[in-house]
């Protein structure tokens, strides 16, 4: 008898040659949190640990073929979306999500690289809000992304505007703010926000948002309620960053695969 397979988690994201972010980061986080990654590449990049030099979105026909072929063969338990690459790709993803409305979907709206390079083509932020948000269970922007998508300087206002556009919940991460600690805030409809405080680490990290969103998607796919999935994924991400290292001349990369941290994901509910 073969053992039952782990939950299959679909990652739709870009390829990062450093392995710090994107598809490779998702594969590591999903595996460390108890899932098995299946992937569709949305964009190719030329980048190092300092910044993205070039981004080439995958043709929408190719992205759709990847997704349809995978999903016709493998039943997935959750979907994580990262770098999208183009407005056309956002529309493809929205169509795919519309065919599977019961699946948990986590969207990390990657709009800029850690080094500051813009990763959003013309019209993509608007396409995310108009096309994808109604099909997303959890949006995980950092504070610049929340302000760009929500159109306001006040983060709570941004979150409520994004909730009004149809997404189920919004987790705004605070690494870009100047607070002494990192404060992450989970906004839900008709409920008070949940805030979690984490000690601010001394370095700059590449791939923290990918790690967090992929971990949440995996835990949702395993059956954890949203609040528990968010709490456990934050612990996993913080420890991945704490144990990170600097392989090049730029940002530190999270260490998502250290065995001692797999317990952060917790047992099956």
Structural class: alpha/beta
Strand content: 15-25%
Mean pLDDT: 92
Which fold name corresponds to the CATH topology?
A: UDP-N-acetylmuramoyl-L-alanine:D-glutamate ligase
Main sheet, how many strands, which sense, barrel?
9 strands, mixed
**What overall form do the CA principal axes indicate?**
globular
Full CATH superfamily name: Ribokinase
Number of alpha- plus pi-helical segments: 8
Share in helix: 25-40%
Q: If you compute it from the alpha carbons, what radius of gyration comes out, rounded to the nearest whole angstrom?
A: 17 Å
Please outline the helices and strands.
Layout: E1 8-15, H1 22-32, E2 36-47, E3 52-57, H2 60-73, E4 78-81, H3 87-98, E5 105-107, H4 124-132, E6 138-139, H5 143-150, H6 155-164, E7 169-172, E8 181-188, E9 191-199, H7 208-221, H8 226-242
Parallel strand pairs: 1-2, 1-4, 4-5, 5-6, 6-7
Antiparallel strand pairs: 2-3, 7-8, 8-9
Helix pairs in contact: 1-7, 2-3, 3-4, 5-6, 7-8
Keywords: Kinase, Transferase
EC number: 2.7.1.49
Pathway: Cofactor biosynthesis; thiamine diphosphate biosynthesis
What does this protein structure show overall?
This protein has helices at 22-32, 60-73, 87-98, 124-132, 143-150, 155-164, 208-221, 226-242; strands at residues 8-15, 36-47, 52-57, 78-81, 105-107, 138-139, 169-172, 181-188, 191-199. The protein contains eight helices and nine strands. The relative contact order is 0.16. The model has no long low-confidence stretch (mean pLDDT 92). It has one domain (8-261): 3-Layer(aba) Sandwich (UDP-N-acetylmuramoyl-L-alanine:D-glutamate ligase), CATH 3.40.1190. Strands 3-2-1-4-5-6-7-8-9 form a nine-stranded mixed beta sheet, with helices on both faces. With 269 residues, it is of the alpha/beta class. The longest helix has 17 residues, at 226-242. Helix 5 crosses helix 6 (155-164).
């Amino acid at each position: 008898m073969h053992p039952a397979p782990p939950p299959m988690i679909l990652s739709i994201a870009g390829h990062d040659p450093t392995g710090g972010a994107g598809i490779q980061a998702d594969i590591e986080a999903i595996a460390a949190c108890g899932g098995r990654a299946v992937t569709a590449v949305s964009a190719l990049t030329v980048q190092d640990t300092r910044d993205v030099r070039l981004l080439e979105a995958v043709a929408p026909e190719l992205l759709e073929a990847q997704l349809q072929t995978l999903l016709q063969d493998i039943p997935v338990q959750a979907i994580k979306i990262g770098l999208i690459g183009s407005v056309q790709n956002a529309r493809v993803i929205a169509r795919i999500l519309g065919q599977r409305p019961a699946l948990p979907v986590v969207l990390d709206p990657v709009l800029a690289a850690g080094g500051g390079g813009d990763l959003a083509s013309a019209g993509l932020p608007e396409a995310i809000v108009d096309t994808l948000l109604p099909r997303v269970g959890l949006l995980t922007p950092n504070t610049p992304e929340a302000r760009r998508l929500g159109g306001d300087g006040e983060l709570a206002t941004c979150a409520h505007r994004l909730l009004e556009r149809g997404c189920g919940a919004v987790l705004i991460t605070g690494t870009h703010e100047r607070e002494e600690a990192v404060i992450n805030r989970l906004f839900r409809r008709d409920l008070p926000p949940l805030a979690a405080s984490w000690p601010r680490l001394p370095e700059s990290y590449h791939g923290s948002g990918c790690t967090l969103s992929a971990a949440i998607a995996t835990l949702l796919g395993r059956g954890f309620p949203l609040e528990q999935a968010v709490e456990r994924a934050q612990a996993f991400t913080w420890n991945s960053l704490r144990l990170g290292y600097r392989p090049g001349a730029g940002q530190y990369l999270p260490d998502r695969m250290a065995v001692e941290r797999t317990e952060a994901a917790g047992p099956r509910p």
